[in-house]
Amino acid sequence: METRRMLPRIAEHLTEKYGKLFSPEKIADVVNYSFATLDAQSKVKTHLFTTTEHFADQRLHALAISHGLIQGDKPRVLFVCPSNTGRSQIAAALMGRRTEGAVGTRSGGVNPGGHLHHRAVEVLQERGIDLSGMFPKPLDTDVHDAAEYVVAMGCLDQIEQRPDTTYIEWDIPLLAEKSVEEVREIVDLIERHVDEFTKELSTSARHAAA
């Protein structure tokens, strides 16, 4: 009963934001698909409706960009790892902070897990980044289509590549069974990659504007 009540509310809320771009039926379809996807993979259902709205919002925004309905005004980077429970979430969070929102960052997993890696949450919390509202997401087609850059960690061969997208692979160790100190070292490594990649994006933007 709660599902029947909440999903139309989410669709109505997103229609206020995207109603000029998509029909109410299309928005409802995206919401229903997002809920079904997350419900099937999530081990914790506590915030399922909140995460459904967040995921549906991301998908609608990406769909609008990939269909040319809105113009993306900043570079769009999609970070991908097998489960989207650790490395790709960390990279997206670090780049978001590093660029202060000047780069559009998303993350996804080719086979998303049920919840974030607890040490990833712990170590980023130490650095002032709150991942408590984040959740593992699948490698969504619409988000993939909208990305200009896809950064893969341990799964590049599992990603169907688009001709107009730049694909990059980072060699980042798995977080599984690592101590908190080892996870801190992995986060340091990801941060170095993020810093270098951010500089490359900035250089590319300057050349494009010249």
UniProtKB/TrEMBL annotation:
Q: Which SMART domains does the record associate with it?
A: LMWPc
Q: Which GO terms describe its biological process?
A: response to arsenic-containing substance
Keyword Lipid biosynthesis belongs to the record: no
The UniProt keywords, alphabetically, are:
Arsenical resistance
Source organism, top-level taxon: Bacteria
Instruction: Name the Pfam families on file.
Output: LMWPc, Phosphatase-like_N
Q: Does the keyword Repeat apply?
A: no
Q: Which residues form the Phosphotyrosine protein phosphatase I domain?
A: 75-200
NCBIfam families noted in UniProt? MSMEG_6209_Nter
What is the name of this protein? Protein-tyrosine-phosphatase
